[in-house]
Amino acid sequence: MKKHNFNAGPSILPRVAVENTAKAILDFNGSGLGIMEISHRHKDFQAVVDEAVALFKELLSIPEGYQVLFLGGGASLQFCMVPYNLMNKKAAYLETGVWAKKAIKEAKLFGEVSIVASSADKNFCYVPKGFTIPADAEYFHITTNNTIYGSEIRFDMDSPVPLVADMSSDILSRPVDVSKYAIIYGGAQKNVGPAGVTFVIIKEDILGKVERPIPSMLDYRTHIKEGSLYNTPPVLPIFTLKETLKWIKELGGVKAIEKLNIEKSGLLYDAIDNSKIFVGTVAKEDRSLMNIAFVMKEAYQAKEADFMAFAQGKGMVGIKGHRSVGGFRASTYNALPKESVLALIDCMNEFEHNNA
User: What is the pTM of this model?
Assistant: First the structure.
């Protein structure tokens, strides 16, 4: 039976990226050694890093003055590194979900944190609007896609202070005006690669302005100077990330990917909105293209476990909602084919026909 992978992360990867990685594990560049066995100082691996950086810059049209880094520690380490490098006294944050809350918690260790707005009052089912960013903040932090709850900021906002964005789960799903951001970061394992590597796009002139000493491993300048090779990097995930970026380019780039993502999510949202038994959980204007959250209408909630078992029997993987939300969540990342979305819709329609 064909499996349809809707996992929220680690998640589906382009098949070609997986296959090329499997080959490189056995024999990298005809060397007789696997990619996991070579030195990260070898010229062949330097070429992998260089190509990955070049592809990131090309696909997102990253302007001069920005650096692309590949680090360890996941986005969660960036929750600490951002304030360590940027905050002297005060930062501003938009609270839109669990990951935003975790970033806020870490930032509070370094100074005052102003939460400019929050959607916690409605269990993060919308993106706050009409807020004011304090001009005395050293930066303003947003989480562009709410992986757990299914909301998304799908535009590049103006900010009077340096803008920092966690784009873990929607990077390269749409064009981004990088020039509006001081830092864009995220874990690769949702949209651009496997777990183990973190991407950081950083405007170099934002650094060197804090008064505190910064440990070498937590100082962005260390990694810029060493080209992401200050210590042994996550070699294998960087290779797969590079292969994923090549796949995006071959598909036609980020604009082409965005068009596909809009089509896929639109089909599934239409199915939910026209359903007798399913209902979406996020304000329509804030719905994510990457993580589609839905539940059963009140009269049918007793059948949630039945639908989960039915869907699994049809090859649907990873559609159980996060434990803090319940219901269902279909992650429709870049690499998920339209075929899988249509299969899920057929599954939902069949279950509804038999139970409504």
Answer: 0.97
